[in-house]
Specification:
alpha/beta, 11 helices, elongated, 5-stranded parallel beta sheet, 2 domains, Rossmann fold, 7-stranded parallel beta sheet
């Protein structure tokens, strides 16, 4: 049992079984909600006076407000991304009072990885193109689709980023016999696949059949896949993005697709979101878009609450928290 009861502030719009799990799992701790909860777990929360009296925040608190919330010892985000909190003033404030910030990468690693691998397989088997044909002239273009279908065995993929999602993608792709690379800012040497730094990426890109972007949005990653890097890819290569839309020069990507310098692209994230209906990405050839659904799954909210409660038990016992990023 904890030495004292904590006040847990939550601005996530949990309902049904997820809300029941949360109430049942917090024990004697006090749970408070702001008057306005998030419409989406992806959106930023606004300032709320209740946060200043909380020990724990669960959801998406205002990044600036947590700096001055002296009582706050732990922030548990409901997303894998944490760009809006990845600031030196936030880090300094949390460090000064021994506070922590965790994301929910463990919740989203599996659905994001399965979503990405589903598209890699779909592209390899020309499934999106066949669906378009069914919706179009139903031309039964057997020879064309068979010629453009390929095996993954022996192909090369590079993962731009190798956190929890990248590691799960690697595990799912490994049985297909692919040659896999991962790019990391600071390789640890313990990665299960060949790991390179950014300075080495230019030499690897020309051999890649698949480039998988899992990068977060930060000053160092914005438009990371720029015109120069896209130009290094062979015309038969595919580009995928389940990281953040801002990490890609989208105008350069559209140009590469229209000029047949790239076989195709799959985007789950764009800049901006929602993507305007008139945006050229929608009509770019062989560009397939899903509306930021890679992390979605039917029991998503239940699993977010379960992840929080598991960390709450660790917090009560003074043990290291899972998915700590600050």
């Amino acid at each position: 049992m904890p030495d004292r009861n904590f006040t847990i502030w939550c601005n996530a719009s949990f309902t049904g079984s997820a809300l029941e799990l949360l109430h049942a799992g917090i024990g004697s701790h006090r749970l408070v909600f702001p008057e306005v909860v998030q419409k989406s777990i992806l959106s930023a929360g606004g300032r709320d006076p209740l946060l200043d009296s909380a020990d724990i925040a669960f959801g998406q608190p205002d990044a600036t407000q947590i700096i001055g919330s002296e009582r706050l010892k732990w922030v548990q985000l409901t997303t894998a991304g944490y760009t809006r909190y990845d600031r030196e003033d936030v880090r300094a404030a949390l460090r000064a009072r021994g506070a922590m910030l965790c994301n929910s990468s463990m919740v989203y690693a599996e659905p994001c990885a399965e979503h990405l691998v589903a598209m890699v397989l779909a592209q390899a088997r020309q499934l999106p193109q066949c669906v378009l044909e069914q919706q179009g002239d139903r031309g039964w273009q057997t020879d064309k689709h068979r010629e453009r279908t390929h095996l993954l065995r022996g192909q090369t993929a590079v993962l731009l980023g190798f956190g929890a999602i990248g590691r799960r993608i690697e595990e799912l792709l490994r049985p297909f016999g692919m040659k896999l690379f991962a790019m990391r800012r600071s390789p640890s040497g313990s990665e299960p696949i060949t790991t390179i730094q950014e300075s080495q990426l230019g030499a690897v890109l020309p051999s890649c059949d698949h480039v998988i972007d899992i990068l977060p949005d930060s000053p160092t990653t914005r438009q990371f896949m720029n015109a120069d890097r896209l130009s290094r890819l062979k015309p038969s290569a595919y580009f995928y993005n389940i990281g953040r839309g801002a990490t890609v020069d989208q105008a350069a990507l559209v140009a590469a697709l229209r000029e047949n310098r790239l076989a195709g692209a799959y985007l789950d994230v764009t800049e901006p979101e929602p993507l305007p209906k008139e945006h050229p990405l929608w009509s770019a050839p062989n560009c397939f878009i899903t509306p930021h659904t890679a992390g979605g799954h039917a029991d998503e909210f239940d699993r977010l609450v379960q992840h929080f409660l598991a960390n709450l038990n660790r917090f009560e016992r003074g043990e290291p928290l899972t998915d700590r990023v600050i």
